[in-house]
UniProtKB/TrEMBL annotation:
Dihydroorotate dehydrogenase catalytic domain: residues covered: 28-192
Endpoints of the signal sequence: none
PANTHER family (UniProt xref): DIHYDROOROTATE DEHYDROGENASE (FUMARATE), DIHYDROOROTATE DEHYDROGENASE (QUINONE), MITOCHONDRIAL-RELATED
BP-aspect Gene Ontology terms: 'de novo' pyrimidine nucleobase biosynthetic process; pyrimidine nucleotide biosynthetic process
Protein name listed in UniProt: FMN-linked oxidoreductase
SUPFAM superfamilies from the UniProt entry: FMN-linked oxidoreductases
UniProt source species: Gymnopus androsaceus JB14
CC cofactor: FMN
Amino acid sequence: MAQIGSIVISPPLINTACAWASDLDQLQALYESPFTGAVTTRTSTLTGYNETAVCGVVFTNSTTSSLNSYGFSPLPLSSYLGWVKDILSAAVQSSSVVKPFIISITASTADELRPMIALIQAAAFNALLNTSCPNISSASPSGYIPSSIHPLLTALAEAHTQDKTLTIGLKLPPYTFRGQFDAMVNVLKECRVCRPDCSWRTCRRCFSTALSLGNVHTFHKLLHGDSQTDAGLRGICIIGVGGVTTPAALAHMRRAGASVVGAATLLGETRCWSF
């Protein structure tokens, strides 16, 4: 079990924002799975992403690995908010255990982000800002560019100031050298989005489990090490993502410092959880 902001995730395993969390049936199946402690929607925009024929995913033959170019959901944010509301309402009516939902969204500017956050707040859900998608033509992931991500985090901090119950998250791309980690921690501190009661972070991988483990381990040391005195930074929880296809891989991610572990390829290739 893990508590992140106002939500409890038990067991501490979730699906990540992926193509296999795109529609009502997929979200319902993830919600009903005994292995998910929370459900993450596919990343959406306010009006829907222009999906083309180049969007897709391929799997390797010999390992549980994938390479994707599926981008964001072609469906608007309103579709996911409606589906999640229906799933949770049905769970309450049947007296079932209610799992948290994480609504994954993306925006390139603060002006685009604010109305999306307002819709999520109005529905009393939790928000995850995806800054890591590398598959959008002519658009570098904002998680690599501090000047781009700063206004987005400021908008999130403003939203939390207005609503202390809002749990927010940030999905980051994989970093490969120390300066990238330090720059992101500094941006989090400057924007004051790192209060213990409002945020978590996810670490994304490319193709390497070692890279994702290294990202989780490095952020864990920077945020929770003895030298870190900022209470807000120390309160951030890490969701580790990348290469989690076995119980052993899940255990490695937890030992590296992840409070919660996320998976997508395993779900897409097997259509089920094998944990």
